[in-house]
Amino acid sequence: MADIIIRNGYILTMDFATEFRNGVVVIENGVITEVAESTNQSADRIIDAKGGVVMPGFVNTHTHAAMTLFRGYADDLPLEEWLKDYIWPAEEHLNKNDVYTGTLLACLEMVKSGTTSFADMYIHMNDAAQAVKDSGLRAALSYGLIDVGENRSTDIELSKGKRFVLDWNGEAEGRIITMYGPHAPYSCTQRLIKGVKEEARKDNVKVHIHVLETESELNQMKEQYGMCSVNLLDRLGFLDSEVLAAHCVWLSDDDIEILRGRGVHVSHNPVSNMKLASGVAPVPKMLDRGVNVSLGTDGCASNNNNLDMFEEMKTAALLHKVESLNPTVLPAMQVLEMATVNGSKALGIKSGILREGYNADVIIVDMNKPHLTPVYDIHSHLVYSASGSDVRTTIVDGRVLMKDYNVLCMDEQDVLDRAREAAANLVARVKF
Ligand code: NI
């Protein structure tokens, strides 16, 4: 007897072109055991997906989840001013409780908008991990290491990163995996970057890093090292298929070739890059060359102020069309792949497609809505017309976290109240 059978929905497997107009997904012990037109199996629980699209949940490959507490705190500012005058001072006052509450709020938002896995890099990560554990989501978590600046020690940072990696890898029934998170080539010394790589290999975990987000990083690296971030990282022996590089906006053709050759995974964050006016990442070129490009929202405060992967997909599709003056660039199906299967590859998790033996990380998108009627092309609707609020049901690891818009994994009102309170206290401390 299976645990769950999802019936009557349009099944979009993201497993090559396999789709069923009216199919079933069978789930047992947290794993998908059958995806087909119909099944002979029976289950404890039947979920009727009539009028919906059953698809893998989204994989958000770059965020700083607890930054939900800074949602709308400082908008429309230059990056330097945004960071130095607003975000960094506020982050200095962030305590463990804030990170727990902010991450839980992020998880609630993700459950409600169809994200089932995410890659996070932040501070007070024990508390972020506890929130992920409590929420039921899946995540690849890293403590953000920085050793450039006052009162920073390479050894202390590295040991903090390692402690977190060892303490949490495989926790929450395997829903949590850990990574090393050296913040960026300009905020970490070469010694730290080399140290991280050594430890990550020993501990058999991946590494999450920001790379060439801004032109000022490119200029600073050239001035300091006589080469760009990609070249420096490559010279340090850092780049391989265990690396997730966020942003990758200011890449040369040679840099793309290095990333491809090393098998580095990229997280494209179009909304953040647009909002902070960082630039346009050469995504079509990377995809053409065979680089695995996934999608991320970045922290909430540098986004549309939300964590909605539908908005991220739509923005990616539109941005690269106008940038290249070519409407055939990044078609809907390719963007859906970036948001699902490419993301799972980047994190090394068995999610992102509906296939036997894969994690039961599944969402149902409600198509019975005015803005989704009529349907000619499901993929096109998902990218251009749907939004996070159209997600009706969210399942992670075979556990139903939201059913027909009712959040079952946490007390929604309580999370909202706690987040408001934490944000108000935080801002009061910052301004004092
Ligand atoms: Ni970031």
Describe the protein in words:
The protein has two domains: 2-56 and 352-407, Roll (Urease, subunit C, domain 1); 58-347, Metal-dependent hydrolases (TIM Barrel, Alpha-Beta Barrel), CATH 3.20.20.140. The protein has 15 helices and 17 strands. It has helices at 79-92, 96-113, 125-135, 154-168, 190-203, 215-225, 229-235, 253-262, 270-275, 283-289, 309-324, 332-339, 341-347, 378-384, 412-431, and strands at 2-12, 19-28, 31-36, 43-48, 52-56, 58-63, 115-122, 138-145, 176-182, 206-211, 243-247, 265-268, 292-295, 362-366, 391-396, 399-403, 406-407. The model has no long low-confidence stretch (mean pLDDT 96). Nickel (II) ion (NI) is lined by residues 62, 64, 210, 246, 298-299.
Question: Quick gist of this model?
Answer:
The chain has 432 residues and is α/β, with parallel strands linked by helices. The chain has helices at 79-92, 96-113, 125-135, 154-168, 190-203, 215-225, 229-235, 253-262, 270-275, 283-289, 309-324, 332-339, 341-347, 378-384, 412-431, and strands at 2-12, 19-28, 31-36, 43-48, 52-56, 58-63, 115-122, 138-145, 176-182, 206-211, 243-247, 265-268, 292-295, 362-366, 391-396, 399-403, 406-407. It has 2 domains: 2-56 and 352-407, Urease, subunit C, domain 1; 58-347, Alpha-Beta Barrel (TIM Barrel).
